[in-house]
Amino acid sequence: MEFSREIAQETPLFDPTGFDKLIAVAGVDAVVSLSGVFESQGRERLGRIADAVEGGDLAAIENETHALGSSAGTFGAMRLHVLSRAAEAACVAGDSDLALSLSRDILEIGDESFNLAVAYIATLPTDIQ
User: Fold this and answer.
1) Contact assessment for residue 32 and residue 120, using Cβ atoms and an 8 Å cutoff
2) Neighbours of 13 (CB within 10 A)
3) Which of 10, 28, 74, 84 is surrounded by the fewest CB atoms within 10 Å?
4) pTM for the full model?
5) DSSP assignments along 28-95, one per residue
6) Closest CA relative to residue 110, chosen from 83, 86, 85
7) Thinking of the domain 18-121, which architecture would CATH place it in?
8) pLDDT confidence of 1, banded at 50, 70, 90?
9) What residue segments make up the domains of the chain, in order of their start?
10) pLDDT tens digits, one per residue of 52-94
């Protein structure tokens, strides 16, 4: 399926369905613990994506968006997931203009996506302090 910016824009920034499925399997405390790793590593990845965009490093963009896309989908950051997958595919296809453009889109929504996930996590009943 070809990437469409319209589809990406229609994809919600955050959808808790992934969280809820993971909670059903692993339990709320485990998911809350894992989500902290998702957030910290994800924000680090955003920094590396920014550096890669600045340097035009498609290999780094491919690597970072691959990992970010996987975790974003699991933890409900759905637009981040869609854009990451599209940026990764653009890198694989050698379309540097599209990869760089999509990476900039990722950087624009990254912080807000993580903030929404953190806000949702704060609503979960947990024994973790």
Assistant:
1) no
2) 15
3) 10
4) 0.91
5) HHHHHHHHHHHHHHHHHHHHHHHHHHHHT-HHHHHHHHHHHHHHHHHTT-HHHHHHHHHHHHHHHHT-
6) 83
7) Up-down Bundle (1.20)
8) very low
9) 18-121
10) 999 999 999 999 999 999 999 989 999 999 999 999 999 999 9
Separation in Å, CA 14 to CA 10, 56, 86, 94? 11, 29, 17, 29
Distance, C-alpha 63 to centroid of its chain: 13
* pLDDT over 50 at 48, yes or no: yes
Name the token pair of 27. Answer: 């339990």
d(CA 59, CA 46): 15
For residue 75, which phi and psi values (nearest 5 degrees)?
Answer: -100, 20
Quote the CA–CA distance of 90 and 47 in Å, as a whole number: 20
